[in-house]
Amino acid sequence: MAVIDHHIPLFDLPENIPIVNPSVDNWAYSSLSTSSISLFIALTLSKIMNFDTSNFMKKWIILSCLGIISDKVPLTFENRIIVRLAFKYLNDESSSLIKFIDFFKNDLKDIKSIVKFCGYLNSLRPFNGYHDVVEFFITDDELKLKKIYNKSQELFEVENYIIEKEFGWLISLSSTHPAQRCFYHPNAKPVHIGILATLLRDNLKKPVCVITNTRNEEVVGELRGIDNSNMVEILNSIKDLLICYGGHPKAAGFKAKSDNLTQICSILNNKLKDISENKNEILIDGLIPDSFKFSDLEFLVEIMSPFGIGNPPLKILITSKQVMESLSIKNYETPLIINASLKDKKVFYNILVDQ
Q: Side by side, which strands form the sheet with 336-343?
């Protein structure tokens, strides 16, 4: 048995159980979704066992892409590569895609449509657990696919209508209280507050928290952060007021007793207000290691092309003088960032930021 996860652990982990978690093992890139980690484990085990993955690779990459987009992890590094490959496979008419992707490929044309597609399936969970979702991914029965998909669409439309009303209430409240960051919505469905917090954060461009009631005189809350924030650290600072909590730097949740609601709201509101956006922050797509070969860059740029508005040139961090020399970059100090793309079928790069 092994545990695969990407959440930040809040306690000492057992030593006798194999754990694969970028947040624990200090991976160079810790924003992988669990679907991506599972993909890498499957590929590694396949290599060790000499298992031919040629008939499964496209399916695995597309499923990993759905997980990446559903979990809204940053589209950089491996995440961006996986999503890019998945879209290439979806747009390749000659691809022998798995049944459900082949059936729904006309609906999956861009990230927005895939997010909605994932929303359909997610709407099934509160009503039938994970049974229909799992069935959707493993069945080859076209009638079952249509039945599950149509059911999820109907539920999604109902849930979406409720979410729009709840979100409208939050937007109205935020417009009359522009300094507020923590919002208590007593009538919101607990299963909706994660979506509401994400929508509100994206609308206000500020870190926020949305809280609502549950049973047993308890409340639940969801925090959504911006690039230079850590929501888990904020919750850790008030852990004595919470029953439980956890998550990621930019998305975390908690449960608490209703008696602590006023104090929690006050503290979170102040802490979230103190977070300011770092205008100088640049999201990079990769770090070139010392073992770099120019052929590696050529391969990466070719995979990610063609570049354009929806797929900008790669931003790559260089920290090694050796790498700079191999790229014939002179008169610059490390670290620096280059923009890399394809021009006339050749790799083209320029200095974006130094120091």
A: 286-288, 314-318, 336-343, 346-354
pTM of the model: 0.70
With beta carbons less than 8 A apart as the criterion, state whether 155 and 123 touch: yes
The residues, ordered by sequence, that sit 6+ positions from 259 with a Cβ below 8 Å of its Cβ are 217
3-state secondary structure of 208: strand
At 185-198, the pLDDT tens digits run: 998 989 889 889 98
Residues composing the chain:
355
Alpha helices in 53-141 (DSSP H): 57-70, 77-91, 99-104, 111-122, 125-128, 131-138
How many angstroms separate the CA atoms of 350 and 62, rounded?
32
What ranges make up the beta strands (E) of 179-313?
Answer: 182-184, 208-213, 218-224, 244-247, 251-257, 286-288
Q: Tell me the C-alpha distance between 301 and 307, whole Å.
A: 9
Q: 277: part of which helix (H) or strand (E)? A: none
Arithmetic mean of pLDDT, 329-350: 80
- Around Cβ 261, how many Cβ atoms within 10 Å? 18
Q: Give the number of C-alpha atoms closer than 13 A to the C-alpha of residue 172, restricted to the C-beta side.
A: 7
Is residue 188 within 8 A of residue 209, CB to CB? The reply is: no
The DSSP secondary-structure symbol of 306 reads S
Q: CATH 3.10.310.30: which residues of the chain? A: 158-273
pLDDT of 159-173, one tens digit each? Answer: 788 888 999 999 999
Give the max Cα distance, the chain.
Answer: 66
Which residue is associated with the tokens 């969970």? Answer: 125
Q: Between 2.30.30.100, 3.10.310.30, 3.40.250.10, 3.20.20.70, what CATH number should domain 158-273 receive?
A: 3.10.310.30
Dist CA 98 CA 347 (whole Å): 33
